[in-house]
Amino acid sequence: MATHTLHKADTRGNAEHGWLNSRQTFSFASYYNPERMGFGALRVLNDDTVAGGRGFGTHPHDNMEIISIPLEGDLEHKDNLGNTEVIRQGDVQVMSAGTGVFHSEYNKHADREVKFLQIWLFPNRLNVSPRYDQVTLDMAAMQNNLQQIISPAPGSHGGAWIHQDAWFHMGAFEKGRQVAYDLKKEGNGVYLFVINGSFTIDGQSLEKRDGLGIEGTAQVSITANEDNSQLLVMEVPMQVTQKS
């Protein structure tokens, strides 16, 4: 029998630093909730807004799969691997931190905000060589459809890849549109995050920035309740096994 865990948008952690407004679905930095330590391999889901010209100075990561999805504006990335890139709405960035990487992220523009999702997953392999990947999505393919944006295998049906048996999909739907998501791997769960609009998912009503974790199911039913309803679907292992 499926288990549902609902996280309403207004119950998330909130860090307000003037230049940064971060809403955190799971415990992160100064926000700590022992009941919200992640969802399986999904450890961090931050909904960040960064003021013009501001950002995160150079800082380290290791043994984590880090995914950035811009929702509005342009985010400038630099790292010690030699990557200097700008990620925009419609792009997805992946960084496998592995043995260690240093990077910075800044709002490229001084006159407007940048909004993006910062997502961390535990990898299934420890101490891999750090790597960077960035892809531009086919936005037309997301219309009334769940487009794959992340998978465990390079070149597998588009999108970027990570060191984890996880699949991410995004879609934008008109009111009344229905779709079913079939999980790819037995034992995985799925976490659904409403970017815009509203949905009914397995009978549960979700509004903008609500999240719903579902375990013990092979399929999820999704119905958009208004036009331009946008959804991120994250299928992840519920048990994390890491190889050295």
UniProtKB/TrEMBL annotation:
Domain Quercetin 2,3-dioxygenase C-terminal cupin: 149-236
Domain of life, source organism: Bacteria
Cofactor (UniProt): Fe cation
Textual note on the cofactor: Binds 1 Fe cation per subunit.
Residue ranges annotated for the Pirin N-terminal domain, each copy included: 13-121
Family matches, as InterPro entries: Pirin, Pirin_N_dom, Quercetinase_C, RmlC-like_jellyroll, RmlC_Cupin_sf
Keyword Nucleotidyltransferase applies: no
Single Gene Ontology MF annotation: metal ion binding
Annotated positions binding Fe cation: 59, 61, 103, 105
Keyword annotations: Iron, Metal-binding
Family, per entry: Belongs to the pirin family.
Protein name: Pirin N-terminal domain-containing protein
Source species of the chain: Chitinophaga japonensis (Flexibacter japonensis)
